[in-house]
Amino acid sequence: MKAKIILLTLIALLAANNFLPAQTSSNKMLVVYFSHTGNTRNMAEQIQKATGADIFEIQPVKNYPEDYKTVEAQAKKEIDANYKPELKTKISNIESYDVIFVGSPNWWTTIAPPVATFLSSYNFSGKTIVPFITHDGSRMGRSVSDIKILCPKSTVLDGLPIKGIYVKDANAEIIQWLRDIKIIK
C-alpha cells in the first residue's frame, strides 16, 4: 500500500512538471520544421513532446552555409526571388494529419525558403496549420500571412514566436500556448 502511494505521488509530480506528455485532442498531429542553427529543432522537439505528434525535419537538398553573413545574403536573394529549394524527402501520408505545426526561423521577416517549398508541395485544404517561429528580434514578421497565402484553404492558428536565445528555457511558454490554442488540456 505504501509503495502504491509513493508511485502515485511520483507520477503526479512528474506530470505536474511536464515530464509526461500532455493529454492531446483526438486529431492526428505532425510537427514539421526547418532549422539552420538548432533553435527551431529544439522548439519542434518541445512541441512534439508536449503533444505526442509525429515529427519531420524539412531538409533542403543543398545545405545552407554555416557562416551567418553568407546564409543571410543567400536567404535574402532566395526570398526576394520567391525561390523554393528542392527538398531531400517528402511525407507520403500528409493526408492522414489534421493538425500540422510548421516551424521556421524568421528569415527576412518570413519563413525560410525550404518551409515555403514544403507548404507549396502539398494540399493542406481543410487542415489546421499552427506556425511557430524562432527569431532574433523580429518575432512572427509576416510569416503567418505568407503561410496563409501558401495554404489558402486551411485554418491557420495563432503562432508562437520565441527568440532563439530563449528557446531552451521556453517549455512553460510552449505548454501555455498549446493550452491557449486548445491543442492540449
Explain this structure to me?
Strand 3, helix 4 and strand 4 (128-135) form a beta-alpha-beta unit. Residues 3-25 have low confidence and may be disordered. The protein has 185 residues and is α/β, with parallel strands linked by helices. It contains six helices and six strands, in the order H-E-H-E-H-E-H-E-H-E-E-H. It is globular and about 40 Å long. Strands 1, 2, 3, 4, 5 and 6 form a six-stranded parallel sheet that branches. The chain has helices at residues 2-16, 39-51, 68-80, 113-120, 143-150, 171-180, and strands spanning 29-33, 54-57, 99-105, 128-135, 155-156, 160-163. The two termini are 30 Å apart. It has one domain (23-180): Rossmann fold. Helix content is 36%, strand content 16%. Helix 2 (39-51) crosses helix 6 (171-180).
